[in-house]
Every structure is written in C-alpha cells, then in structure tokens.
Design goal:
Blueprint (H helix, E strand, L loop, with lengths): L1 E3 L2 E3 L4 E9 L2 H12 L4 E8 L6 E9 L2 H13 L5 E2 L1
C-alpha cells in the first residue's frame, strides 16, 4: 500500500481483511461462502462476546480491484447473518 497526497493507494490484486460480526457462526460461514463463492479465503474466529451471543471473525480474501473490494464489503453488510462489517 502506498500513500498519495494523504490517501492510501492500494496495489491490486491485494489481500484484504474484513472483520465480520454476527450472532450465528454457521450463518456467518454460509454468508461468506455465498458471497465469496469459488475464491480462496481464510476465515478465523477472532473473538466471542462474554456470553457467546456474538462472534467476530477475521475474513481474508484477495480482491482484484477497488470495485471488487467495495462490492464484497457491501454484500457482507447486506447479508442478514452479518450484523457488522469493519
């Protein structure tokens, strides 16, 4: 990643990480599978709430362009199993 006039410039394709939070681990895994489809990705549990109501996962996937990166973000955000995407 480079910086150009105060803004980060990302060289694509690039590995990108999303933090996703939801109430149901299986639902989150299905959501990621539906959205990422046949691409290779890595999804790792990063944290659970104290009472186990919510789980947070780090999702890493190679994105091909700025448009692709934003499309994955928007698709994750729109999925009913996903409560928050960072």
């Amino acid at each position: 990643m480079k910086e150009l006039e105060g803004q980060a410039v990302i060289d694509y394709p690039s590995s990108w990480s999303y933090q996703i939070i939801g109430a149901d681990e299986d639902g989150l895994r299905r959501a990621v599978g539906e959205i990422i489809q046949d691409r290779t990705y890595r999804m790792v549990l990063s944290r659970s709430s104290e009472k186990g109501k919510y789980q947070s996962f780090q999702l890493e996937v190679v994105v091909e362009s700025e448009g692709h990166r934003l499309a994955v973000y928007e698709a994750l955000r729109a999925h009913p199993a996903v409560k928050i995407v960072l």
